[in-house]
Write a structure and sequence with these properties.
Elements lengths: L10 H7 L4 E4 L3 H13 L5 E3 L9 E2 L2 E4 L1 H7 L4 E4 L8 H11 L1 E3 L13 H6 L1 H10 L3 H16 L3 H5 L6 H6 L6 E6 L5 H13 L3 E7 L3 H10 L5 E4 L2 E2 L4 E6 L7 E2 L5 E6 L1 H4 L5 E4 L5 H6 L2 H5 L3 E5 L6 H12 L4 E6 L8 E6 L3
Parallel strand pairs: 1-2, 1-5, 2-4, 5-6, 7-8, 7-14, 8-9, 10-13, 14-15
Antiparallel strand pairs: 3-4, 11-12, 11-13, 15-17, 16-17
Amino acid sequence: MGINITETKDCWDVLKETELPVFMYGMGLGAEKILSIFEQKEITCAGFFASEGFVRGHSFKGHLVHTLREIEEKVDDFIVVLAFAASYEPLYSTILDIGKHHTLIAPDVPVAGDGLFTYEYYRENQDKFEEVYNLLSDDTSRKTYENIINFKISGNPKYLDLCTSPREEVYGSIVDLKDGEVFVDLGAYKGDTATEFVRACEEKGVRYDMIHAVEPNRKNYEKLKKNTEGFNISCYNAAAYDRSGTVSFTSNEGRMARISSKGDDIIDTISVDDITDNATIIKLDVEGAEYQAIEGAAQNIRNGAQVMCALYHRNEDMFKLPLLIHELAPELKLYIRHELYIPAWETNLYAVREK
């Protein structure tokens, strides 16, 4: 049985064709990105609202920012467009609760790259999506893959809620840990995933050999070193890429700082294969440079390194990254999981050895 994609109408078409007013929940960079798409597609935004603690009588883009309650008192029915990311309770549940009372759309706007994930985009690449679907190793992965694609087309958060898995499952049942692991952390941020790896080893009674942590943002890099004191770790203030050298880099976006031709900084790059030849687990969350970073780890992956990879920065990541890893190491088993997050961030690919 093949992949089952039921959503055939893009959220942008729904918003353009509706006769209901469209209000945006949230402000900031996310709202600005969505507004630019609204302008391109001639979608009208009726106004903005924010959580009650953030409403201070201020304006955004010429609109007075209201609370949801204030809008509900004035407008009988309307559509809500979510313009920010939510990854924790109770905010996640609050957003889903809004969806019980109003049509709620959380548009999928890629972190990196151009274009939107539309039904047409899916159809243009359907053979690749089908190929990945048929490579996945369990029903949960296949259902997750379908739900994420349906979400990206429709913007309906129900699809994310249908496929959310607990973070504990990663080291609990997917990624196998053994003595002597060499963990390469690409996009190490402030040391959160390195710390998670060390704790998982301790819980399983496994001794790791080494951690190599790569983080391009200077401030995050300094916190990474501080937060991982006492670990057997080497830290690199560089961007993970397909080669060692230099690239343009946006340094002012915090956790989402990334390689970009429009970058305001020049930073060193490094490849996994230049760091080590004996990696056993490679984690990648490098804000849209995953494909190049995988290419830079090709020899380690061919040697059997397990891979934990973000699958949500670019539209094409959903098929290009699994197919690249499968080409490099067809013996690795492919799994996909989505952790609690709106929009479809924290959708991750796991390429793991047979247990």
